[in-house]
Amino acid sequence: MSSKILTVFLLLSLVSMHQIPVVTCRQWCMAMPNVSDEQLQANIDYVCNNGVDCTPIQPGGVCYEPNTLYNHASYAMNAYYQNHGRVEDSCRFNRSSCWVFVDSCVY
């Protein structure tokens, strides 16, 4: 991981952990890179069973590729966050998430 990317990741982690408000017009909720596969799957299961359309991460869906648990969880977690008012509580996921300022899925 390059030092610039690591610096940005650490800054975003601090913002997330300390609940420092960030003013931005575009913000996404994503999985933390160090989260276990079990937690990622639990996040997907929770989101997909609580009103979020998860067809984009199913085979043939617009966000199926890259076909990784991390990317699918990030999509699902962000969809939940966006559909639930973009409030802080909708991007908690048992401390397995962070906010980013780059969209995780390009359509």
TrEMBL record:
Main location: membrane
Domain X8 span(s) in chain numbering: 27-107
Keywords: Glycoprotein, GPI-anchor, Lipoprotein, Membrane, Signal
Signal peptide: 1-25
Membrane topology: Lipid-anchor; GPI-anchor
Domain of life: Eukaryota
A GO cellular component entry from the record: plasmodesma
Record bears the keyword Acetylation: no
SMART domains according to UniProt: X8
Localization of this protein: Cell membrane
PANTHER family cross-referenced by the UniProt entry: BETA-1,3 GLUCANASE, CARBOHYDRATE-BINDING X8 DOMAIN SUPERFAMILY PROTEIN
Name of the protein in question: X8 domain-containing protein
Organism: Eruca vesicaria subsp. sativa
